[in-house]
Specification:
By secondary structure, the protein is an alpha/beta fold. It has seven helices and ten strands. The protein is globular and about 55 Å long. The structure holds adenosine-5'-triphosphate and magnesium ion (MG).
């Protein structure tokens, strides 16, 4: 479970600045193309990192895969079924502010387990997820009583509890300080190793993508096309200094994004 086929997906949005006059022919020219025939196939359990310039359509692509928005053309097929609407059982969309502020950490994690009848099994499962993300002792805290990094870890626990086939993360580390970012990245890699769920991560950070991904996809500027789709067959933990091939790829991707001298 968790196989994803993005089949020639296109997306256009109306141009907000150029409204068509009523009755004018060819409304097509008032549309802005955002995604241009994106075709990608992700295997079960793959961790795919998606890079691309700001505004190129990464979040749009994730929203289409999650079923929040229809594509203008093309289709998304997940486990042989066409995506037509969101499915909270099989896809979890990780949000940076996804916790409900009026609920404790425990209650937030419990949200994903509403269907579980057995109280004891449920409690055990909640405690287990909280332990995995090392938030024991904070079960009765409300989100505003946690640090930014802890809130993201609580959100991870929520995702783990739901046990979806697919995890979708749009810039999960944005706004975190350097060390918290590194720890959270490790947390996501461990979670993936442990659960083996198909995971799509959009990031701005080339190093994040190369360290985390089983696969890296680079999108071109708007309208987004697939510029690079590369498998990363490198052992983990990954160290650029010990992996010259990975270092070389890093340089190439920086170049692709218009940076000549990556540091
Ligand atoms: N609902 C919408 N209506 C109209 N235009 C939209 C809508 N959503 C996104 N767009 C446009 O589509 C383009 C792509 O947006 P998107 O949010 O997917 O980019 P992104 O690659 O995620 O950018 P960033 O890296 O800054 O998050 C942008 O130009 C944006 O203005
Ligand atoms: Mg975005």
């Amino acid at each position: 479970m968790g196989h994803i086929l993005i089949d020639s997906v296109c997306k256009e949005y109306p141009n907000r600045r150029r409204k068509p006059r009523p009755g004018s022919p060819g409304t097509g020219k008032y549309m802005v193309p955002v995604l241009d025939h994106i075709t990608l196939e992700f295997g079960e359990g793959e961790m795919v990192c998606i890079l691309g310039p700001s505004g190129c359509g990464k979040s749009t692509l994730l929203r289409i895969v999650a079923g929040f928005e229809p594509p203008t053309a093309g289709r998304v097929i997940i486990d042989n079924k066409r995506v037509e609407r969101p499915s909270s059982d099989s896809i979890f969309v990780f949000q940076n502010n996804g916790l409900l502020p009026w609920m404790t950490v425990w209650e937030n994690v419990e949200l994903g387990l509403r269907h579980l009848e057995d109280r004891e099994a449920k409690n055990e499962r909640i405690a287990e997820q909280i332990e995995i993300v090392e938030l024991e002792g904070f079960e009765q805290h409300y989100p505003h009583q946690l640090s930014g990094g802890m809130r993201r870890r609580a959100e991870l626990a929520r995702a783990l509890a739901v046990n979806p086939n697919i995890m979708i993360m749009d810039e999960p580390f944005s706004g975190l300080d350097f060390l918290t970012h590194m720890k959270m990245r490790e947390e996501v890699v461990n979670m993936h190793r442990f659960t083996r769920k198909t995971t799509l991560v959009v990031t701005h950070d080339i190093d994040d993508a190369l360290i985390m991904g089983d696969r890296i996809v680079v999108l071109d500027d708007r309208p987004a096309k697939v510029k690079l789709d590369h498998k990363l067959d490198f052992p983990r933990p990954r160290d650029f200094e010990k992996l010259p091939e990975l270092s070389e790829l890093r340089k190439q991707i920086f170049l692709m994004q218009g940076v000549l001298y990556a540091v």
